[in-house]
Structures are given as C-alpha cells and as structure tokens.
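Feature request, filed as a ticket because there's no other form

It would be nice if the structure record came with a short human-readable summary line next to the tokens. Right now we just get the raw output. Example of a typical job, pasted below so the devs can see what we mean:
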Amino acid sequence: MREAAFVRQNKDKWLKFESVLVNNALIAPDELSDLYIEITDHLSYAQTFYPNSQTLNYLNGLASSAHQKIYKTKKEKKNRFYSFWVKEFPLEFYKYQKQLLITFLIAALFTAIGVYSSATDGAFVRSILGDSYVNMTLENIANDDPMAVYKQMGETNMFLGITINNIRVALNCFILGVMFGIGTIYMLMQNFIMLGSFQYFFYDKGLLWESVRTIWIHGTIEISVIIIAGCAGLVVGNAILFPRTYTRLTSFVRGVKAGLKIVISTVPFFIVAGFLEGFVTRHTEMPDWLAIFIILGSLSLILFYYVIYPRQLYNKSKK
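Raw output as currently delivered:
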C-alpha cells in the first residue's frame, strides 16, 4: 500500500487518538488500550514499509505519548464483577450483533434441514436421535406420557448433568472457531439438525404442541445460548480470516478474548436452563398459561440482554 493511501485510510483514527491524549478526555481504560494496540500495529507497519518517513515519526510520537496514559488510567475497579455483567460486556457485545445474526440464520437453516430430511426420509430421525431414544419415546407415547424422559432422572443429577453438558457444547463451539469458524459451523449443524429432527418427530406423531410447551420451558434459554456460543466461535474465526489493520496474531488474540467473554456470559444462562430442565420441565401437568409464561419470559430475557440492552448502552455512550 502506498504511504498516502495508508495515511488516508487511518488518519481519522490517529486524529481521534491524538485528541484523547492532548485534551486529556475521559475514556474507558479498555477502550484506550484497544486504540493503543491499533496505533502500535500501524507503527509496526510503518516501520516495515515507510522507514524514515514523517508517518513513522508521527506514529512513534503517538505511541510514546500513549504508553504512560494507558498504564496511568487503567485501574481495576472494586465493582469490576458488577461492571462486567452490567456495562462492559453488553456494550462490547454490540459490536458482534452481525455475527449473532449470522449464527442465528445458520442455526435456522440447519433446523430446517433437519425438519425437511425427517419429512422426506423415514429413517432419518432414527439416524440422528438413535434407535434407543426413538423406541423409548414411542413407548412413552403409547403410555400417554410422551414427555416422560424428563422424569426418569433425579432433579439434582439431571440439573448438574445437563448444565455441564451444555457448557461443554458452548466451549466446543467457541474453541472450534480457531478452524476459521468451520468447526463452529459443524457444531451448529450437529445440534440444530438434531433439533429439527426432534421437533418433526413429535409433529409427525401429532404431539407438536405438547412437545413445544414442555421442551421449550428449558429449551428457549438452552438453544439461545448455544447460538450465542456459536457467535463466539464465529468471532474467533472472523478475527483470523479478516485481521483488518492488525497483524493476524494480534487479531487472533483479540478475537479469542472477545469470544471468551461471550462464552463466559452464557454460563449463568446455562445454569438457569439446567435448573429449569431438572426441576421444572418434568411437571408436564402444569397449565399451558404457566408454560407459555416461562417460555416468553425466557425469550424476553435473552433478547433484552444480548440484543436490546447492548444497543441501549451503545446509543447512550454516543450521546
């Protein structure tokens, strides 16, 4: 890239950073640190391609001036735990709404594939869910208790087992993002083709509503946060494939940090989903209005924390 084009592409960021330094404007320590990393990446680029240039001298001055300010400003707050959940993470997650939408669309596509495949191939459901599960469920249907599978294990054991398994799935979705996001997409394919097949199986038996009002008591949060964990994996994959002005290593590290925060944010929700599956879903005798209330309340909570609230914080920060 020619020096003039490099300057033209990045000068707005440099001027913004310089304004923060010169005017001593208040800025979040983490944001200042991120700006500093970007400036140092530009400095390294200029050292390689534009030695002895005015651009190199300018960036070197910016980086030197910034170093002291970063480490003077960046102090851990006593309420960091509260700040992470209420301010820091939701505001940062606003940047990944595009990846979240893409993950949701991928999940919806694989769910549709699961439904279509089950509808057109009678053996598909058994190949996905397994003969033992299908046979057990058919026996439960014959006994007029199609959701009996949620009553077979003790509440506490089921809660712990489901929660640990779901967190494992989320970590796999995140970690496999290092395979340029392909590993994450594979995990989403496995889980959501299964979901589509599972729902079609009950639809085919005339039990769609019974399955929805029971399974989605816990499934609303569980499935939603698997999508969010998939978003974390795509953030990592995107950072590797598209480093922008960062070095690929720096972009990868930033992507991993961002993805890890996203996965950490899902842990409390997986605990809630595990609690619902272990202690609440088994009560298939509950009235429809209560099941619908839990499902809609769960959906509202997810949408607020991961979509609406980040946008609110972002708009407030721009004022």
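Something like this underneath would help us a lot:
The radius of gyration is 24 Å.
The longest helix spans residues 208-241.
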